[in-house]
């Protein structure tokens, strides 16, 4: 289907959208030549992460544009709309604080995380909220803008401290506010000498009149200002606002380092590292486009990749430069050094992870005599005394949890007579029947929780579907933890408890068990078991809530002595009736 569709794709610029088996957009890209770009995804070999994405693609769509720039703008709009899981996304939790002068009739200062770059009264960014709030505290001492959210009917303490003009009782004209805003703007641009000199004069005057507490407050403010300005150590004589952007790549990743230069000083930094799929330029451009759509962009960008960032110049009102020498070049070199360090750290971390994950996968493949299992699906069942059984499937891709692929099942086979084997058959039937119907991704290995009986149950289902997917069982020891592996031919394979394979398999088994138990608890919290209590005479809503809050489970209620019920102020006859019903229910299971 995909190959047939590729033959109709034009050799034109545009944006393309990759879709999964459910029609959900999982990746958005842009291309100068749609046909060439899309063809590269489905031909040749790729690295692990690109292979993972391609295996998730069920179909694709595309939109032709007139120019590559139009394709870029459309791509960013679609990324913001669909938030595809394989794209570089500007997340809400990765935002920088600014100080804002609000545009109200009576303005005030506040710390904000803007997602609107059009506000002209933003100052920053600051490296963190604490730095922004420290600066805000100083400004609120120095400049008498209002501090309240809503104007009160009478002046507050700030008015008497001369830190507010009290617009609640006095008429304050706009020119007065405009003058204060200009002073705040100069202060935030680093012009603090006049402010400090004025505070020192006030401090000495207060000391001469023996107003030592007031003098101490002035000193604290002076120290705070000097500390805030001293934190920024890299300076430019040119006080214009600019961002320094360094982009560095290796064969799989791109690192971006941004220095935010405000009033000639490094105000904050942003560091990102992304994996790229085929196009090494796309992640950096995507991230920066999203970033500057959300945050104020300075008039000048300094970069080591001017050709790439020229597209930003075309979209936003800014200038892109690549300095060759001088202080600006030194700043760019510093940013580039930090970006290379990010890539180096990432390479070392990936090497360690590869040894833990891909090394373990290769060893597991050797043990089972199968191809490397890049996608593993593991199953675990959970129930309460045979009743209300559930099952869970966890998926590990490249040795790591792929939580978006996890699935949970409410099973129909109940009672102890059926046991885990029938429940295992049911969940495997449902999973792989649907896989065949939807022609979705097949696993490289199926792991079941248990030994020979569970394996035989799994074999029968795979045989019914004529599937030849590798299969193994994870057997627990007397401590209910991973002990050994059972191959499809019923061979028991011992595991080195200190080895990589054991660590991976134990993690998979624990994760499957956790996911199943969590689902079981969720059902219980929704009242699956509480229905047993509804038909017991003398047990109303309050008593039922009291019982479930105290005992947590029906099994705990059944096992508890009558004295435990008495402690909850439940009458003895009612308690005896509850225990009798629960005991009878238990025997019938």
Q: What do you see in this structure?
A:
This protein is 46% helix and 19% strand. The chain has 589 residues and is α+β, with helices and mostly antiparallel strands. It folds into five domains: 2-82, GIY-YIG endonuclease (3-Layer(aba) Sandwich); 127-230, no CATH class; 242-350, Ribonuclease H-like superfamily/Ribonuclease H (Nucleotidyltransferase, domain 5), CATH 3.30.420; 362-520, Nucleotidyltransferase, domain 5 (2-Layer Sandwich); 531-587, DNA polymerase, domain 1 (Orthogonal Bundle), CATH 1.10.150. Strands 12, 13, 14, 15, 16, 17, 18 and 19 form an eight-stranded mixed β-sheet that branches. A five-stranded mixed β-sheet has the order 9-8-7-10-11. Helix 8 runs antiparallel to helix 9. The radius of gyration is 33 Å and the shape is globular. The chain starts with a helix and ends with a helix. The model has no long low-confidence stretch (mean pLDDT 81).
């Amino acid at each position: 289907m995909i190959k047939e569709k590729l033959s109709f794709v034009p050799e034109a610029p545009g944006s393309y959208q990759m879709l999964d088996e459910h029609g959900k957009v999982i990746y958005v890209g842009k291309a100068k030549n749609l046909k060439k770009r899309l063809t590269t995804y489905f031909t040749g070999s790729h690295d692990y992460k690109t292979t993972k994405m391609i295996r998730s693609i069920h179909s694709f769509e595309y939109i032709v544009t007139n120019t590559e720039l139009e394709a870029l703008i459309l791509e960013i709009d679609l990324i913001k709309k669909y938030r595809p899981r394989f794209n570089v996304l500007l997340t809400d939790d990765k935002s920088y604080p600014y100080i804002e002068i609000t545009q109200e009739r009576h303005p005030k200062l506040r710390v904000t995380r803007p997602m609107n770059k059009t506000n002209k009264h933003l100052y920053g960014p600051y490296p963190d909220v604490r730095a922004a709030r420290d600066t805000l505290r100083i400004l609120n001492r120095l400049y008498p803008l209002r501090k309240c959210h809503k104007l009160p009917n009478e002046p507050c303490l700030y008015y008497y401290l001369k830190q507010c003009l009290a617009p609640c009782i006095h008429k304050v004209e706009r020119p007065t506010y405009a003058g204060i805003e200009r002073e705040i703007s100069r202060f935030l641009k680093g012009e603090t000498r006049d402010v400090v000199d004025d505070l020192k004069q006030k401090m000495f005057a207060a000391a001469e009149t023996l107003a030592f507490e007031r003098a101490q407050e002035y000193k604290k403010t002076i120290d705070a200002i000097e500390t805030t300005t001293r934190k920024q150590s890299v300076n430019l004589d040119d006080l214009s606002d600019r961002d320094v952007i360094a982009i560095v790549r290796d064969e799989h990743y791109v690192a971006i380092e941004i220095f935010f230069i405000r009033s000639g000083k490094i105000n904050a930094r942003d560091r990102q590292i992304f994996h790229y799929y085929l196009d090494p330029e796309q992640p950096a451009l995507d991230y920066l486009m999203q970033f500057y759509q959300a945050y104020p962009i300075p008039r000048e960008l300094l970069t080591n990749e001017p050709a790439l960032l020229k597209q930003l110049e075309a979209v936003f009102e800014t200038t892109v430069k690549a300095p060759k020498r001088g202080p600006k070049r030194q700043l760019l070199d510093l940013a580039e050094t930090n970006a290379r360090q990010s890539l180096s750290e990432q390479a070392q971390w990936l090497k360690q992870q590869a040894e833990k994950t891909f090394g373990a996968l290769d060893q597991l493949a050797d043990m089972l005599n199968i191809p490397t299992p890049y996608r593993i699906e593991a199953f675990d069942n959970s129930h309460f005394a045979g009743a209300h059984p559930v099952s869970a499937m966890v998926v590990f891709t490249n040795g790591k949890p792929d939580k978006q692929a996890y699935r949970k099942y409410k099973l129909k086979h109940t009672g102890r007579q059926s046991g885990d084997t029938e429940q295992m058959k049911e969940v495997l039937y449902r999973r792989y029947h649907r896989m065949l119907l939807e022609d979705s991704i097949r696993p490289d290995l199926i792991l079941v929780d248990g030994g020979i009986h569970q394996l035989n149950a799994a074999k029968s289902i795979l045989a019914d579907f004529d599937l030849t997917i590798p299969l193994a069982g994870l057997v627990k020891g007397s401590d209910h933890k991973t002990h050994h592996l059972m191959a499809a031919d019923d061979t028991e394979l011992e595991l080195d408890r200190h080895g990589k394979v054991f660590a991976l398999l134990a993690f998979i088994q624990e994760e499957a068990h956790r996911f199943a138990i969590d689902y079981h608890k969720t059902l219980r919290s929704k009242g699956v078991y509480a229905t047993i209590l509804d038909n017991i005479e003398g047990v109303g809503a309050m008593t039922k809530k009291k019982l479930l809050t105290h005992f947590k489970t029906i099994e705990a209620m059944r096992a508890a002595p009558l004295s435990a019920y008495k402690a909850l102020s439940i009458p003895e006859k009612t308690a005896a009736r509850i225990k009798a019903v629960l005991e009878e229910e238990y025997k019938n299971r």
